[in-house]
Write a structure and sequence with these properties.
Largest sheet: 37 strands, mixed
Number of domains: 4
Number of helices: 7
Strand content: 35-45%
Number of strands: 46
Radius of gyration: 26 Å
Structural class: mainly beta
Helix content: under 10%
Distance between the termini: 42 Å
């Protein structure tokens, strides 16, 4: 345990801290009696870290390519700040490894301003180790936010709890401005990457979390735990403003035997404003229990989205909504432009939901999962917990493709889910079974044609008109999608593009008009701009559907340049319009974040925009996108 003088801590200001910042070296040739200030006077191991007080700007440097037994332990007086963090990393060639044995690899309590880079943390294995790999834990009173946590280019494996965790157990106290990037978390017992807060009441304990380009796999679960889910890939709870993109989660959860709660590849719970996008989840399991899903927006989560993801060959659900009974915190969530192939269920709604939008997804369901041989059940399934008056309202399933192979149910809506009053609405979808007849189940009744389902249950109706189709959408090679294993290449999944001759092109509902905002600019394949009135069901918008917009642009002699792309501080816009045009910039979730006007040449200050993808609409003629660094 570290013993420090609080008088000394209070005496030093932040400026003094940075003035006295030092490097501390740890080398295989060092001695723990050294002062650690140079490579020549390096420490031998991790023991002196626990005895030393670190200040903003300090660096703890491990010799690259070497392994050091022990652990790293930081407490509140070891904090840095965003400008002058305490950095823990390797020096020289290669990464250093922290061999934690049966201990944790790193434990940091009530600290901020910490960066962990270019290191490996290794435990003795899930059978022996019972600790987390890297743990940031906050329990200070007063709803404190510990700012600036960065973990990049790190491997974490062999731990008996979680691999990497942000934990909070003091109401809204937690962490903010967190970056987890290029982190591989595998062969741990309970989970890969996680966060949590004291309860669902504190969905803002953690703020502004970005997790990207992480690989999370073979976190198999705890077969002895029969009361809780284990074996998750990435699961984030108790957080506001979460972005998870370009992550891969696979082969997790096969040792979870809990019958009431199971694992998933990538999911959120007790969150607000979370986005999961450009991710791949596959081969996630649950060994006879429940779940084993690809993606999930779970309990007490609102204003969140799953988009541009690829889920395949998961034992459970591809895209899941879950909410406890008699609580309607699960609202304003969206699932759009995703692909599911050979998941146990394509899309599942489990519980009561409010104001949900599920559109332009492509779901391929076969009778048997080819990897494990377990059965698939439905392309779409809605059920609840069996409680009276536990209903969903304003849940819309639109412009999706449900492609079946084998004896499967296209849609089942449990009677108690909507009590027969159609609070779950299907509109503008395409249904097809290449093996035979389709079936739709609602309120305990089975319908074998779309027309009889429409007439009896008022489904596939919009503004008094019949919608939806039973037809072959003419996908390139349905069911033949492979593991991509590189999220920058998800758009190469050409098996789920439509043939140019497809009869469904341009036959979808106009989602911009329906939702009243510019809801999206690109399809799953990132290559289509949607003009007004031209929409196609499924995750692919063929270029055929935008010909009219291109022709309109040419006739109006309208040209536009947006540069640089990516942009950092200033975005330049040039056009040859003679009249002032309105300009809107949208976030990736479809929210308008900037209004303005453009004429000929304009420059916009975007320095305050968070990093990410943004969409531009100018007048009624043109739309584009750019990346903010």
């Amino acid at each position: 345990m570290k013993m420090r003088s609080h008088i000394f801590v209070l005496f030093l200001t932040i400026s003094c801290h940075t003035l006295f910042a030092r490097n501390y070296y740890i080398s295989s040739k060092g001695k723990d009696t050294n002062n650690g200030s140079t490579i020549a006077s390096a420490w031998r191991g991790t023991a002196n870290i626990d005895k030393t007080h670190f200040v903003p700007g300090d660096s703890i440097l491990f010799e690259g390519g070497k392994t050091f037994s022990g652990y790293i332990w930081l407490q509140s007086e070891d904090s840095g700040n965003a400008l002058h963090p305490v950095v823990i990393t390797s020096y020289g060639r290669g990464r250093a490894a922290i061999d934690a044995g049966n201990s944790f690899g790193m434990y940091a309590q009530n600290v901020g301003g910490i960066e962990v880079r270019n290191l490996n943390f290794v435990g003795s294995g899930p059978a022996m180790n019972t600790k987390p790999g890297v743990m940031f834990y906050a329990d200070s009173s007063g709803n404190v936010k510990f700012n600036h946590i960065v973990i990049t280019d790190v491997d974490i494996h062999g731990f008996g709890s979680t691999g990497l965790t942000l934990g909070s157990y003091a109401k809204s106290t937690g962490y903010e401005n967190v970056l987890i990037e290029r982190v591989n978390v595998y062969d741990n017992k309970n989970a890969g990457i996680t966060s949590y807060s004291e309860s669902y009441l504190y969905r803002n304990a953690h703020r502004n979390i970005l997790i990207r380009y992480c690989n999370v796999y073979n976190n198999r679960g705890d077969s002895t735990n029969k009361t809780s889910h284990t074996g998750d890939g990435i699961v984030i709870g108790g957080a506001t403003n979460v972005l998870m993109e370009h992550n891969i989660a696979h082969d997790n959860g096969d040792l979870c035997f809990c019958k009431t709660a199971g694992p998933a590849g990538i999911w959120v719970y007790e969150c607000d404003s979370a986005a999961i996008r450009y991710c791949e989840a596959y081969h996630n399991r649950r060994s006879g229990g429940v779940d084993g899903d690809g993606f999930d927006i779970d309990i007490f989560t609102s204003n969140s989205v799953m988009e541009y993801n690829y889920s395949h060959d998961n034992e459970g659900v591809g895209y899941l909504f879950t909410q406890w009974q008699n609580d309607y915190t699960h609202r304003n969530n969206t699932v759009r432009f995703n692909i599911s192939q050979n998941d146990g269920v394509g899309i599942l709604l489990y519980g009561p939901f409010r104001d949900a939008q599920i559109y332009n997804n492509t779901i391929y369901s076969s009778q048997k999962n080819p990897l494990y041989g377990f059965p698939s059940y439905h392309a779409f399934w809605a059920l609840n917990f069996g409680f009276a008056n536990n209903y969903s309202t304003n849940v819309f399933i639109r412009n999706n493709i449900f492609y079946l192979h084998g004896t499967l149910t296209a849609v089942e809506i449990q009677p108690k889910q909507n009590a027969g009053d159609s609070n779950v609405f299907f509109q503008g979808n395409v249904f097809y079974n290449d093996s035979g007849a389709l079936s739709y189940v609602q309120n305990g009744k089975t319908y074998t044609t779309l027309s009889t389902w429409r007439k009896a249950e008022n489904q596939e109706m919009f503004n008094g008109d019949s919608t939806g189709m039973e037809t072959d959408p003419q996908l390139i090679a349905p069911g033949k999608g492979k593991t991509i294993a590189s999220t920058d290449s998800l758009m190469t999944l050409k098996q789920y593009r439509l043939h140019d001759s497809s009869s469904i092109i341009g036959k979808g509902l106009n989602m911009d008009s329906i939702l009243g905002i510019l809801t999206f600019m690109t399809d799953y394949f990132s290559d289509s701009i949607r003009p007004s009135g031209q929409f196609t069901p499924g995750a692919h918008e063929p270029q055929k559907s935008i010909v009219s917009a291109v022709e309109s642009t040419a006739k109006n002699n309208f040209s536009l340049k947006i540069f640089p792309d990516p942009a950092k501080d200033i975005l330049n816009i040039e056009c040859n319009e003679k009249e002032i045009q309105s300009l809107q910039i949208y976030s990736s979730t479809g929210k308008i974040i900037y209004y303005g006007k453009v004429l000929n040449k304009s420059s916009i200050d975007i320095s305050a925009f968070p990093s990410g993808i943004y969409f531009i609409k100018i007048g009624e003629k043109y739309a584009g996108k750019f990346v903010k660094e």
